[in-house]
What we know:
Layout: E1 8-13, H1 23-31, E2 42-48, E3 63-71, E4 79-83, H2 84-89, E5 97-98, H3 104-114, E6 119-126, H4 140-143, H5 145-158
Parallel strand pairs: 1-2, 1-3, 3-6
Antiparallel strand pairs: 3-5, 4-6
Amino acid sequence: MxxxxxxxxxxxxGSPLMGDDGVGLKVIEALKKTExxxxxxxxxxxxxxxxxxxxxxxxxxxxxxIVDAVLTGNRKGSVHRIEGRDLIEGTEPHTLVSxxxxxxxxxxxxxxxVQTLPEIVVIGIEIGELATEISRDxxxxxxxxxxxxxxxxxxxxxxxx
Length: 161
Protein backbone atom coordinates (compact mmCIF):
# COMPACT_ATOMS: atom_id res chain seq x y z
CA MET A 1 0.00 0.00 0.00
CA UNK A 2 1.51 3.40 -0.94
CA UNK A 3 2.25 5.60 2.06
CA UNK A 4 -0.32 8.20 0.91
CA UNK A 5 -3.02 5.55 1.17
CA UNK A 6 -1.75 4.01 4.38
CA UNK A 7 -4.11 4.43 7.32
CA UNK A 8 -3.82 6.77 10.22
CA UNK A 9 -4.03 4.91 13.52
CA UNK A 10 -5.27 6.31 16.80
CA UNK A 11 -4.10 4.09 19.64
CA UNK A 12 -5.35 4.43 23.20
CA UNK A 13 -3.07 3.08 25.91
CA GLY A 14 -3.83 2.31 29.51
CA SER A 15 -5.22 -0.11 32.02
CA PRO A 16 -8.95 0.00 32.77
CA LEU A 17 -8.19 -1.36 36.25
CA MET A 18 -5.80 1.38 37.37
CA GLY A 19 -8.02 4.42 37.71
CA ASP A 20 -6.88 7.47 35.75
CA ASP A 21 -4.42 5.33 33.76
CA GLY A 22 -7.44 4.11 31.77
CA VAL A 23 -8.11 7.55 30.26
CA GLY A 24 -6.51 6.63 26.92
CA LEU A 25 -9.04 3.82 26.60
CA LYS A 26 -11.89 6.22 27.49
CA VAL A 27 -10.78 8.47 24.63
CA ILE A 28 -10.87 5.50 22.24
CA GLU A 29 -14.30 4.51 23.52
CA ALA A 30 -15.58 8.06 22.92
CA LEU A 31 -13.96 8.29 19.45
CA LYS A 32 -15.73 5.10 18.38
CA LYS A 33 -19.03 6.91 18.98
CA THR A 34 -18.13 9.72 16.57
CA GLU A 35 -18.11 10.05 12.79
CA UNK A 36 -14.34 9.50 12.88
CA UNK A 37 -14.96 5.79 13.43
CA UNK A 38 -16.63 5.66 10.02
CA UNK A 39 -13.77 7.27 8.07
CA UNK A 40 -12.08 4.97 5.61
CA UNK A 41 -8.35 5.03 6.29
CA UNK A 42 -8.63 5.87 9.98
CA UNK A 43 -8.13 3.04 12.47
CA UNK A 44 -9.11 3.55 16.11
CA UNK A 45 -7.86 0.87 18.51
CA UNK A 46 -7.33 -0.02 22.16
CA UNK A 47 -3.61 -0.74 22.55
CA UNK A 48 -3.83 -1.89 26.15
CA UNK A 49 -0.82 -1.22 28.35
CA UNK A 50 1.39 -0.61 25.31
CA UNK A 51 4.82 -2.09 25.79
CA UNK A 52 6.80 -3.34 22.80
CA UNK A 53 3.64 -4.83 21.26
CA UNK A 54 2.81 -1.24 20.34
CA UNK A 55 5.42 -1.47 17.57
CA UNK A 56 3.32 -4.07 15.73
CA UNK A 57 0.45 -1.58 15.58
CA UNK A 58 2.66 0.90 13.70
CA UNK A 59 3.06 -1.43 10.70
CA UNK A 60 1.42 -0.11 7.56
CA UNK A 61 0.40 3.22 9.09
CA UNK A 62 1.35 6.62 7.69
CA UNK A 63 0.67 8.39 10.99
CA UNK A 64 0.06 7.13 14.51
CA UNK A 65 -1.58 9.15 17.27
CA ILE A 66 -0.98 7.63 20.70
CA VAL A 67 -3.23 8.67 23.58
CA ASP A 68 -1.97 7.82 27.05
CA ALA A 69 -1.95 8.92 30.67
CA VAL A 70 1.23 10.72 31.64
CA LEU A 71 2.94 12.18 34.67
CA THR A 72 4.68 15.46 33.85
CA GLY A 73 4.16 17.53 36.96
CA ASN A 74 1.57 19.73 35.26
CA ARG A 75 -2.04 20.31 36.30
CA LYS A 76 -4.13 17.13 36.54
CA GLY A 77 -6.28 16.86 33.42
CA SER A 78 -3.98 18.99 31.25
CA VAL A 79 -3.45 17.72 27.71
CA HIS A 80 -0.06 17.66 25.98
CA ARG A 81 0.67 17.26 22.26
CA ILE A 82 4.15 15.91 21.70
CA GLU A 83 5.93 14.99 18.49
CA GLY A 84 7.27 11.45 18.61
CA ARG A 85 10.49 12.67 17.00
CA ASP A 86 11.04 15.07 19.94
CA LEU A 87 10.69 12.16 22.38
CA ILE A 88 13.14 10.01 20.43
CA GLU A 89 15.72 12.79 20.13
CA GLY A 90 15.28 13.98 23.71
CA THR A 91 14.37 17.54 22.68
CA GLU A 92 11.04 17.53 24.51
CA PRO A 93 11.41 20.13 27.30
CA HIS A 94 9.85 17.93 29.97
CA THR A 95 10.15 14.20 30.48
CA LEU A 96 7.03 12.15 30.01
CA VAL A 97 6.69 9.40 32.55
CA SER A 98 4.32 6.70 31.46
CA UNK A 99 2.53 4.74 34.10
CA UNK A 100 3.47 1.51 32.30
CA UNK A 101 6.66 -0.58 32.55
CA UNK A 102 8.12 0.96 29.40
CA UNK A 103 7.56 4.60 28.59
CA UNK A 104 6.37 5.58 25.14
CA UNK A 105 9.78 7.19 24.69
CA UNK A 106 11.43 3.82 25.39
CA UNK A 107 9.19 2.05 22.88
CA UNK A 108 9.83 4.69 20.19
CA UNK A 109 13.59 4.59 20.69
CA UNK A 110 13.63 0.80 20.45
CA UNK A 111 11.27 0.92 17.47
CA UNK A 112 13.54 3.31 15.60
CA UNK A 113 16.32 0.72 15.87
CA VAL A 114 14.30 -2.18 14.49
CA GLN A 115 11.84 -0.70 11.99
CA THR A 116 10.86 2.35 10.01
CA LEU A 117 8.51 4.41 12.15
CA PRO A 118 5.56 6.35 10.76
CA GLU A 119 4.93 9.94 11.82
CA ILE A 120 4.03 9.75 15.51
CA VAL A 121 2.18 12.19 17.72
CA VAL A 122 1.61 11.51 21.41
CA ILE A 123 -1.32 13.09 23.19
CA GLY A 124 -0.71 12.74 26.90
CA ILE A 125 -3.30 13.41 29.57
CA GLU A 126 -1.85 14.40 32.94
CA ILE A 127 -3.10 12.13 35.73
CA GLY A 128 -1.22 13.72 38.64
CA GLU A 129 -0.32 10.50 40.45
CA LEU A 130 -0.12 6.76 40.01
CA ALA A 131 -3.01 4.61 41.17
CA THR A 132 -2.10 2.53 44.21
CA GLU A 133 -5.25 0.36 44.24
CA ILE A 134 -7.30 -1.37 41.60
CA SER A 135 -10.09 0.90 40.45
CA ARG A 136 -12.21 1.46 37.34
CA ASP A 137 -12.93 5.06 38.40
CA UNK A 138 -11.40 7.98 36.55
CA UNK A 139 -11.21 11.29 38.38
CA UNK A 140 -13.40 14.17 37.12
CA UNK A 141 -10.36 16.30 36.17
CA UNK A 142 -8.89 13.56 34.00
CA UNK A 143 -12.25 12.55 32.53
CA UNK A 144 -12.82 16.22 31.70
CA UNK A 145 -9.79 16.08 29.38
CA UNK A 146 -11.46 13.54 27.05
CA UNK A 147 -13.36 16.21 25.08
CA UNK A 148 -10.26 18.40 24.70
CA UNK A 149 -8.30 15.36 23.55
CA UNK A 150 -10.92 14.50 20.93
CA UNK A 151 -10.80 18.09 19.62
CA UNK A 152 -7.03 17.80 19.34
CA UNK A 153 -7.33 14.49 17.49
CA UNK A 154 -9.87 16.00 15.09
CA UNK A 155 -7.39 18.77 14.37
CA UNK A 156 -4.61 16.21 13.77
CA UNK A 157 -6.63 14.27 11.22
CA UNK A 158 -8.71 17.06 9.62
CA UNK A 159 -6.03 18.07 7.13
CA UNK A 160 -5.63 14.45 6.02
CA UNK A 161 -9.29 13.74 5.19
